[in-house]
Amino acid sequence: MAQTDRERVIVRTSIIGIVANVLLVAFKAAVGLAANSIAIVLDAVNNLTDALSSVITILGTKLAGKKPDRDHPLGHGRYEYLSAMVIVAIVLYAGITSLIESVRKIIEPEVADYSVVTLVIVAAAVIVKIVLGRYVTAKGKQVGSGSLIASGKDALFDAAISASVLAAALIYLGTGISLEAYVGVVISIVIIKAGIDMLRETLDDILGHRPEGELSTGIKRTVCEDPDVLGAYDLLLDSYGPDLTIGAIHVEVPDTMTAAQIDAMTRRLQASVYEKHHIALATVGIYSRNTTDDELVEMRSAITRVVMGHEGVLQMHGFYADSEQRVASFDVIIDFDVKERDELYAHIVQDVQNLYPDYTFNITLDRDLSD
Question: Could you state, in chain order, the average pLDDT of each consecutive group of 10 residues for the chain (371 residues)?
């Protein structure tokens, strides 16, 4: 989807959310104040935060859509992550203030006065929020907008909140037991939890996280389909917004390839990965594999058996040996769950050195970047 089309969808969806939430705020605030219902008033406040979130989503999308410039050659896509953080702040603020007000109402209770109109409006709000939440979430997934997805999830939470308010009102009318303030506490906790979850997801986007298993596996599969590639490793993806992801990868190739052949292969890999996965491979690093010297081929196999025999080792790759200089290099990946990673690395270095004492080894402790 083109950037202009994506921006148009986000803005249109956000405007729909703003209109729906403003109407809900007006109706809920009116009936909440008329019925002296803290739960309905808090529900209206929650809808107001949704409207503000949609406004921020539009602003973030507009800023993210700015064209690249000299100071920001990769564009402004990360503005969407910042707008998502602002939405998180609004949600958390609404949750905390609602919790404080609800606790105060438990300490100093007030009797609500529900009417048929009040119940009808709250019931209608539940339906509206379910429809709106599903619609906004679907549009967010369609265009890859974290802000829209967050707003959609929040709307679905609101539907559950409004349903709990309706249930409390019906219980009060049927039994005379007022659960209003307690429902307000539950509403507040749900809002705070939603805000924390949204914060965690947004921080993952900002900090950078492991690529999805399906995506990383698919990219490596595409790379390994090239006839000159013997293996693909060290995939690294860096997001500059939903529409731009820059990637880097190492590939293992025969030591007989020329610079011209490597150049042609690199261009093929960049084109195929972008076509199939919409990932721009900025860097294709090269590992040379010994293929013409049988002794070095056997050396690679022997060292692989020793290294992979250690518990906690996930992978060994990038092996290359120079028999004239008596120097060999390779990378080893150790599971992040291994507590004594440095000690295990030292054991591996020692075991390999004992196996081939006349060689100098350059063994890199690599990171487990992708599945």
Answer: 70 85 86 78 77 75 73 71 79 82 80 77 86 88 77 78 81 82 80 82 72 84 96 87 82 96 97 92 94 94 95 94 95 90 94 95 82 53
CATH 3.30.70.1350 positions along the chain are 211-286, 290-371
Are the C-beta atoms of residues 95 and 192 closer than 8 Å to each other? yes
Domain with CATH 1.20.1510.10 in the chain: 3-207
E strands in 266-326: 280-289, 313-322
Q: 3-state class of 260 per DSSP?
A: helix
What's the topology of domain 290-371?
Alpha-Beta Plaits (3.30.70)
Q: State residue 51 phi and psi, 5-degree precision.
A: -65, -45
CB neighbour list of residue 125: distance below 8 Å, 6 or more residues apart: 24, 27, 28, 43, 47, 162
Query: What CATH topology corresponds to 211-286?
Result: Alpha-Beta Plaits (3.30.70)
Evaluated on CA atoms 362, 368, 369, 371, the torsion sign reads positive
pTM recorded for the entire structure = 0.60
Domain 3-207 indexed as CATH 1.20.1510.10 = yes
